[in-house]
Design a protein that fits this description.
Elements: H1 16-21, E1 26-30, E2 33-38, H2 42-51, E3 54-57, E4 63-67, H3 71-77, E5 90-93, E6 96-97, E7 103-105, E8 108-113, E9 116-120, H4 126-137, E10 142-144, E11 149-154, H5 158-166, E12 178-183, E13 186-191, E14 200-205, H6 211-222, E15 228-230, H7 234-240, H8 275-283, E16 289-296, E17 310-314, E18 317-328, E19 333-341, H9 342-346, E20 350-355, E21 358-365
Parallel strand pairs: 3-15
Antiparallel strand pairs: 1-2, 3-11, 4-9, 4-10, 5-8, 6-7, 8-9, 11-14, 12-13, 13-14, 16-19, 16-21, 17-18, 18-19, 20-21
The structure holds (6S)-5,6,7,8-tetrahydrofolate (THG).
The site of (6S)-5,6,7,8-tetrahydrofolate has 15 residues, from loops.
Length: about 375
Amino acid sequence: MFRVTISPRLRMTPYHESTVAAGATDITIYNKMVLPLSYGDLEAEYDRLINGVAIWDVSVQRQVQLSGPDAHEAAQYFTSRDITKMVEGQGKYVAMCDHAGNIMNDPVLMKLSGNRYWFSIADNDMILWCKGIAAEKGWDVEVTEPDVSPLAVQGPKAEDLIAELFGEHVRDIRLFRFIETDLDGIPLVLCRSGWSKQGGFELFLQDGSRGNELWDLVVAAGEKYDIGPGAPNHVERVESGLLSYGGDHTPGSNPFEVGMGGYVDTDTDVDYIGKAALQHVVANGGPERVFVGLNVDAALDEPWPLPARTPVTVDGDQVGTLCAIVHSHRLGRTIGLAQVNRDLVESNATVQVQTPTGLADATTQSLPFI
Ligand code: THG
């Protein structure tokens, strides 16, 4: 295998030393930054997430900050969801689309105040898009990437741990709501969020020089809950049907085609990029393709990193694209995520997908699996 040269172009995270000390073995690059993927024991990492509590360096979830008098107008224009009723301290899962209604990102949008918003983005250079459009529009808004690096604490024991660190009041924070707070003077935004369905919080560190200090505080308090390191978990996210932008969507997909229809408002007075195109999709009977789960009739003995999107076929004809395939520990079977033609799903047809042991039959089902 080749080695990766470290340079300023490839950004380390504020938790870098901690993740190395914890034994990170696998990384990927996301938003030009290091994302630890494993600490060498995927089974233990999964078990911790499902039954205990795990700490994840998710600094790669960079923030695009909009600040200034026109921040609200800008945030709305970039978002294919009506955010009129959003309040301070609230986040919402949203789609950002281009003018053709194709999805470009699926961030969590956070309203810090009437004139300050964060898009907590997936892997794509949204800051360039936002800067360009803001300048062309002549808005009074500053578009920046602030010094903010989320640390996720996920799993059924996460709430007890966070309550111990911050106080009992955190139990009242609802999904995607957040507070500005600190831990031993380390400035944070504490949000009930995270890329798993096991519950938990994200600590948005606002001082990149104190990442390892924050990591150590969380780990020390988490010892009695048997906390351990982990990462956004591929198996759990497939079971839960959580979208991985860039992995799941095929180029030229609208939000309806990646399972985000529930987060799109087309019947609204607010203006946003891609609105006319998305209204057109709705007016013409809905999307051509849908995002579904697959139950695959093949054993997957080893984790199989799908090297690229592969076709979903019926009798050799392509009817969709396979985005992920895993062995689900909790379901005890092989499951996958795919984007397939809608008429096919409605007819309940059996399809075929590629597996390490050859072509296998699969049936579609709605998401999530669990
Ligand atoms: N947290 C933060 N930023 C992020 C992510 C995150 N940026 C990148 C990436 N993850 C963005 N993608 C997602 C995908 C799914 C969810 C959040 C961010 C998610 N979805 C739930 C679901 O689909 O069931 C809940 C949606 C809802 O009920 O509104 O949580 O994880 N900071």
